[in-house]
């Protein structure tokens, strides 16, 4: 919070110029129409106060019955015009507000999707949701209130002051004499409201982020029995928001209160001075009532205009927060002059040359080098944290190398247009990301696909095995993050998506990790068919899925420590053989292709391991053993 309090607000002129030119200007026709009706509504206040004079002097005092109907109709006309103009301006302002808010939110989502990993580390999902929905909607509400006040209340104030001045200019000056006393306190309150409103929006983001974490982690919270802890953490966040919001509200509420105090002083002074003139016959009762009606009606628009100073500063806070996000620029961008691939992508080798990368100060890749031959399958194995998934991020330029190079067909991937580079890959990750849309849409990703191609992709990924049993078939909603499907079903949908995408380079990050042994075998066969003729890189912990790979790259602590075929790696021993022994022997005898018993996995023929037909589930003990093994090797 101290950072927020010490933060220097951005220039109001810069923020409003950005907001007007980018979003409000497109609503100019609706705003002009609304301002016109606001002006009419404001002028009706002056007309009403002016009609008080003939009502008292001509009708009530002089007793002119012939004038009753005309004065009554005139007053009725004032209220009719005011009602119509009020209705019209509210509709037009609502149109401008909602459309502006929609433009801001759409533009923000589009912009955020261009940004890179570090941005999302700084702005987690809950914070971004609050920026997108909360800030943009609050801006819409606040500038709508501000424009309404400026359009209706300024005109109303002017018309009422005109009537007051016309009635008695000296009385008007007496009422307004204390107004200069408002300048300093309102200026100070504006600064307070700007600062506290920004702080309130910041704490609101923390509340939204906390909610996002709670609702997405309900299962973990229940299983760990930490419901009370999470409730207390949320309570802490929401209480901080309440405190910040109340500080902003106090500053804003003080402005109309000051206006009331000054108005009270003016009323007392003019009543003391004007009352004597009426008693002496210098002024009529109608003049006095018309003046006091004008001044009385003037109080409300004056109070709203007093509040508008606070609303202005309150609106600046979310505008400034939105501006901060829009000013974030992607670091991963298209090269100034993109180069084409020198050969068809299916013939391009993927090469990492002395690649170094770190997310923080601790390096993830330490001079990693290997080549994935075009049309062949290259598998990456190693302990968690070895850098395997990071390589996939670098290949697709979700992150950029800090030194070294990644080339495709001899061309640095940073020299290719991003759309072309990412268009070369089909990706299936261990976390199958589905959207709350139909299964059909999750497979096609919005593309127009003929039914035959769609069915072929579904059959290849064995989606057809379960989708026909759903009530709505392909039109069944997958649920938020695919929650309406099982883990294995989500994975099959993701694989079908990759099959349908049909790109020359295939990236498989634990693609069958969520499948049972039988489904894994079936889908693995489909993936092997899909990988034929494609450059395929596979991350796998289940070594059964990569035994037929053309090359296996063994990684440890961000470095390539060995590479070769399955048989070559077993024969050489080392990390791969140790990992293989842990997964398959588990202390039991392994039988090679000649039926000879062997305690060492390196002596076994990998093509005919007797345990291949057994389920390959890995226990937590096994993962612990692997971690300890790799820790000893690294030491």
Describe the fold and architecture.
By secondary structure, this protein is α/β, with parallel strands linked by helices. The chain folds into 2 domains: 20-326, ABC transporter transmembrane region fold (Up-down Bundle), CATH 1.20.1560.10; 345-424 and 503-572, Rossmann fold (3-Layer(aba) Sandwich), CATH 3.40.50.300. Helix content is 61%, strand content 10%. It contains 21 helices and 12 strands. It has helices at residues 2-6, 12-24, 28-61, 68-112, 117-122, 125-167, 169-176, 183-216, 218-224, 227-279, 285-326, 388-395, 418-422, 439-444, 451-460, 464-467, 487-501, 517-531, 566-572, 575-584, 620-634, and strands at 350-358, 363-372, 377-382, 403-408, 411-412, 425-428, 505-509, 535-539, 551-556, 559-564, 590-591, 597-598. A 6-stranded mixed β-sheet has the order 6-7-8-3-9-10, with helices on both faces. Helix 6 (125-167) runs antiparallel to helix 7. The radius of gyration is 36 Å and the shape is elongated. The relative contact order is 0.08.
């Amino acid at each position: 919070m101290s950072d927020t309090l010490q933060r220097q607000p951005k220039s109001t002129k810069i923020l409003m110029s950005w907001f007007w030119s980018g979003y409000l200007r497109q609503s100019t026709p609706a705003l002009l129409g609304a301002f016109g009706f606001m002006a009419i509504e404001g002028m009706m206040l002056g007309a009403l106060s002016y009609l008080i004079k003939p009502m008292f002097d001509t009708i009530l005092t002089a007793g002119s019955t012939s004038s009753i109907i005309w004065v009554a109709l005139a007053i009725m006309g004032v209220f009719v015009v005011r009602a119509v103009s009020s209705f019209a301006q509210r509709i037009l302002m609502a149109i401008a507000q909602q459309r502006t808010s929609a433009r801001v939110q759409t533009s923000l989502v589009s912009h955020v999707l261009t940004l890179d990993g570090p941005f999302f580390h700084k702005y987690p999902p809950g914070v971004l949701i609050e920026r997108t929905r909360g800030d943009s909607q609050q801006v819409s509400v606040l500038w709508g209130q501000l424009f309404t006040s400026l359009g209706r209340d300024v005109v109303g104030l002017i018309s009422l002051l005109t009537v007051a001045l016309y009635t008695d200019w000296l009385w008007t000056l007496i009422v307004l004499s204390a107004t200069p006393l408002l300048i300093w306190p309102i200026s100070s309150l504006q600064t307070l409201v700007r600062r506290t409103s920004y702080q309130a929006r910041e704490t609101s983001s923390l509340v939204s982020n906390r909610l996002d974490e709670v609702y997405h982690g309900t299962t973990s919270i229940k299983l760990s029995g930490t419901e009370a802890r999470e409730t207390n953490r949320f309570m802490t966040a929401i209480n901080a928001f309440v405190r910040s919001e109340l500080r902003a509200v106090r500053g804003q509420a003080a402005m109309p209160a000051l206006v009331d105090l000054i108005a009270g002083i003016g009323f007392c002074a003019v009543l003391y001075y004007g009352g004597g003139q009426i008693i002496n016959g210098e002024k009529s009762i109608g003049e006095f009532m018309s003046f006091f009606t004008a001044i009385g009606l003037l109080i409300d628009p004056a109070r709203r205009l007093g509040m508008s100073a606070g609303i202005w500063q309150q609106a600046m806070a979310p505008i400034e927060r939105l501006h901060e996000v829009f000013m974030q620029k992607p670091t991963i961008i298209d090269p100034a002059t993109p180069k084409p691939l020198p050969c068809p992508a299916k013939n391009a080798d993927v090469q990492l040359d002395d690649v170094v990368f770190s997310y923080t100060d601790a390096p993830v890749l330490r001079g990693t080098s290997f080549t994935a031959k075009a049309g062949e399958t290259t598998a990456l194995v190693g302990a968690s944290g070895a850098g395997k998934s990071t390589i996939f991020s670098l290949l697709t330029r979700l992150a950029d190398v800090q030194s070294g190079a990644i080339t495709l067909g001899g061309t640095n991937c940073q020299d290719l247009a991003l759309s072309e580079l990412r268009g070369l890959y089909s990706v299936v990750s261990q976390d199958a990301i589905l959207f709350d849309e139909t299964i059909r849409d999750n497979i096609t990703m919005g593309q127009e696909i003929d039914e035959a191609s769609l069915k072929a992709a579904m059959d290849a990924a064995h989606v057809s095995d379960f989708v026909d049993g759903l009530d709505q078939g392909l039109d069944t909603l997958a649920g938020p993050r695919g929650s309406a499907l099982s883990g294995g079903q989500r994975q099959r949908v993701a694989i079908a998506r990759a099959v349908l995408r049909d790109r020359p380079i295939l990236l498989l990050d634990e693609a069958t990790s969520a499948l049972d042994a039988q489904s894994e075998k079936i889908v693995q066969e489909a993936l092997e068919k899909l990988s034929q003729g494609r450059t395929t890189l596979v991350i796998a912990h289940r070594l059964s899925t990569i035994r037929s790979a053309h090359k296996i790259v063994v990684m440890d602590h961000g470095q390539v420590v060995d590479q070769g075929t399955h048989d070559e790696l077993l024969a050489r021993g080392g990390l791969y053989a140790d990992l293989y022994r842990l997964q398959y022997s588990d202390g039991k005898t392994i039988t090679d292709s000649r039926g000879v018993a062997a305690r060492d996995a390196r002596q076994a023929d990998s093509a005919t391991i007797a345990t291949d037909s057994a389920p390959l589930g890995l226990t937590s003990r096994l993962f612990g053993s692997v971690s300890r093994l790799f820790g000893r090797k690294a030491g």
